[in-house]
Amino acid sequence: MAAQEYLQPALAGLDPAVDGVDPALPLYATTFVVVDLETTGGAPDGGGITEIGAVKVRGGEELGVLATLVNPGVPIPPFITVLTGITEAMLLPAPPIEQVLPSFLEFISDAVLVAHNAPYDVGFLKAACARHGYRWPNPRVLDTAALARRVLLRDEVPNRKLGTLAAYFRAATTPTHRALDDARATVDVLHGLIGRLGGHRVDTIGEAIEFARAVTPTQRRKRHLADGLPRSPGVYIFRAADDRPLYVGTSRDIATRVRSYFTAAEKRARISEMLAAAERVEALECAHSLEAEVRELRLIGAHAPPYNRRSKYPERVVWLKLTDGPYPRLSVVREISPDDRAYLGPFSSRRAAELAAAGFHDAVPLRQCTHRLSLRTVTPACALAELGRCPAPCEHRITPQEYDAVAVTPFAEATTGDAKPVVDALLARIEALAAGQRYEEAAVLRSRLAAVLRATVRMQRLAALTGIAEVAAARPAEGGGWELALVRHGRLAGAGVSPPGVHPRPTLATIRATAETVSAGHGPVPAATPEESERILSWLERPETRLVEMSAGWASPVSGAGRFRDLLTKAENAASRQLWSERS
C-alpha cells in the first residue's frame, strides 16, 4: 500500500539566538583581528611566545593596534635571534605572557581572528590560555594561507608564503619576521584575497571560512541551494529534479544547518551522493523544536527518502501477544486488536520481539509449540515437556485454569503492571548459572532480561501518556514567551509560540481551536508512531516544561516496570562492556 503523503501548514517560528560573530555577516561589515606571533620555536606548550602583534580592521579601516614583546622566561635560541632580530636583552623588561593575555583576549573579543598559517599562532595562544587559567574564547578563525591556496593559481604565485603574497598584493608593509610588521602585511593580503572572493560567490564570513577549507566541487557548485532559507526552527527537505524528497532533516536554525552540508565538515559519502542529485531545498518553518522533530518523523514516514536511514518505515513495528484458545502462546504479529487479551510492544524488529519472548519463556512456563490445542484431543508432547520446560498442556497434564495462573497471568501482569515475578525468575536463573560458572549462558539470559525490561518499561511509559485525551504544556522560549504544545492521545495536535510579554492563554486557545482531532484508538500508541510519542514524552519530561492543562491524570502503576529502570541500565551496561571486551 502506498504511503499517504503528509501535508501540514507551517507555523511561525522564532529566530534562535546566535553567540559570537554571525556567520551570515557580510565580509565588509566583519571585524577582523589580524594577529602574528614570534616564538622561541618548538611545539606550543603554554610558553615560548616572544612577541605579539595584532591589528583590528573593519571595512578596510584600521580600528586599533596591539603590539608587545613578551618575556618567555627561557633563553632565546641563536637562530631565532638571527631570524627575528629579537635578543634576550630586549625581552628582559617585557611582561610575561600571563600579564599580556587579558589585554589580548579583550582586544579580540567579538571579532574574527585572522593569521597566516593560523593553526600555528592559534595553537600557541590556546596553550598559553590553558596553562595560565584563561578561558579561550574560541573565536571564528580565518587562515589567509589556506584561503590563498583556494583563490590563487600557481600561475599567479609560486607559493603561499607571506612574503610572496605581500609582494603580489603590493602590501604597504614588508614582512620582516617581527610580529606587528607581519600582522600589517597580513592585513593587506587579507584585503587582497577578499577582493578575489566575489568571483566565487563568497560574500559572508561564514562562507569565507568554509571556502578556505577543502570542500568538494559538488558542495561548491550546489552551495546556492542554501540561499534564502529562514533562520528559524523547522524542517528542511532536499528535493531532486523531479521533486522527489531525497533527505529530510530538522534544525533549530534551518539556514545554518543546511549551509553546513556544503562545508568541509560534511564528509559522509551518502550525503555527498545526495547533494549531487539535489536541485532545491524546501524549508518548512515550525513553531519550535518539538513541532520540527515531529514533522520530520511524519515526513520521513510518509515519503521514505532514500538518504534517510532512521524512522523510514514506522509501519514495520511488531507486537508480542497471547493467542486465543484454552492454552495461549506468544506470537509475533503486525497488529493488535481490542480483543487481544494481553500484548507487549511495539518492537522495532521481529528479532527484538523474539528476544523478549525468549525471556518470558525462561521465566514462565508458556508453551512454545505452534499447534492449535484442543480440550478434547491430546497431542504428543515435545522435548521441552520431557526437559521440564513446558507443563505439557498438549497432553492435558495441566488444566486451562492452572495454565492461566502459572503462565498467562504473569505475562499479562508484566505488560501492564507488576513485572516482578518475571524479573525475579530470570534473576534467579542468572544467579544459578553464574554460581555454576556457566557465564556465557548467564550472559544470554541477561540479554533476554534486558529485552523484557526494555519492552515493558517502554510500553507502560507510552500508555501513561497516550491514554490521556489531551495535554497542554508550555516551555519557556529562548527569545521570550512560551513554546506551547497540545498533545492528544500521544500525538502532537497543535503547536505555537506566545509572544514575549503576552499571556499565553489566548495563544493556547487559538491552538486548541485549530488543532487536529485525534481519536482514542487502541494500544499504547493508538494515534501516532512510537517515535513521535517518545519525542513528545522527552519534551514533556524536561524540568523546564510546565503542564498547563490535562483532561485526566498522568500516572504510571506504582508497582509498574518503571521501578526496574536501574536494573535495565545495569544489564545494558554489562552487555556493552562484554561486547567491547569481545571486540578487543
Automatic annotation (TrEMBL):
Superkingdom of the source species: Bacteria
Gene3D superfamilies in UniProt: GIY-YIG endonuclease, Ribonuclease H-like superfamily/Ribonuclease H
Domain GIY-YIG: 231-309
UniProt cross-references to Pfam families, sorted A to Z: GIY-YIG (PF01541), RNase_T (PF00929)
Listed name of the protein: DNA polymerase III subunit epsilon
Taxonomy of the source species: Bacteria, Bacillati, Actinomycetota, Actinomycetes, Micromonosporales
